[in-house]
Design a protein that fits this description.
3 strands; three-stranded antiparallel beta sheet; mainly alpha; globular
Length: 420
Amino acid sequence: MLDHFFVKPATIDRIRNSWLGPQIESYLEWLEANGYARPTILRRLLHLYHFAAFAQKRGCTDVASAIDLIEEFVSEWLVQHGAEAKTAASLRKHAIDVGNGLRQMLRLARDGRVISNRRRRPFPLESAVPGFQEFLRDERGLMESTIHGYRHHLRDFGEYLCKAGVTSFGVLSPALISSFIVDYAPGMAPNTRRDLCGHLKVLLKFCHRQGITGRDLCGAVGMSQVYRLADVPRSITWDEVRRTLDAVDRRTVRGRRDYAMLLFLVTYGLRAHEVSKLTLEDIDWKRERFQVPDRKAGHATAYPLAAVVAEALIDYLKRGRPETEDRHLFFRVVAPRSPVTPATVSSSVAFYLQKAEIKVRKGGSHTLRHTCVQRLIDAEFPLKTIGDYVGHRSPESTRIYTKVAIEALREVAMGDGEAL
């Protein structure tokens, strides 16, 4: 592998004779297999070689203890090479790049796999309320995206208790809980206030069940009133959909991938996480259909594979999807090659809406989902059929689209009023 990057045998021998030589070669193979650019590989190889010499001078001869020397090496490297950075931001970026490569290589050598360099914060209140995250995931069956919403609100609650000097949930009182809501809720949107109160109720019920609190305190949390039909779904017109699709540059790998994802969203009303989880096995080319397993409503849905969607998908599979053993359908364009996340799907939609100069509140994947549902409503399909088509758990989720005739109101607003 090293001879792919160096011509001189002496250079290759110096790296191989390093005590981290075998690990460096394995890491280079991983970088090349995951689509990293040649300049990136060469830059990281330089860092790895100097780190091996740095660790050896400090008497380090095993991978596990070498991980503890990364921060010290990065600091010393910046002292020697930091002058290349023109600004504080570029210096910080340089430090992150050096540290990330070292962590990736050492984790690959230690664990046989590479995980994200992002440091995952522990679940909020984990020490005070042990087992709550597992309760949400296993007993309540919540998705990770929903649990992430709990993280945000529980972190705020934990910080508030810390400022109030509360070290144990056993001393919680209705007055303290009400005080937290009064302090935090006013700056929130109605739906966010509702979620905050709902998350606190679930937490307090769990605490009482586990004996962490002496009584059930969820009664101290008043639910914020939210009117179901108070808002209009943020759909766009079909002409705006065409403009959004036209904004995609299908000459690039990213464009071919994003065009296929956008068609899945607007044609079938899929959610972002449903698109990100699609696999090659979910596409049945012989029967010209595909399935979406494990939907939010607790069932799977099979759809006919529309010709325009199939053509876009074939174009991406032939000229965009990387060669990998992973069976996911859509992948990141930049290294490392890994399946797209729901956030990637949603941000891609927001990018093309902005590129097409379409103004919509909170543009994202649900914009196209709402558009799909609204188009079916305008075509006068039964609500039950529409709900099943897009995977609504409750009929109430579909009924919200029927409260206004969007296209009719647009015609009235654009007219001169004589028809009235």
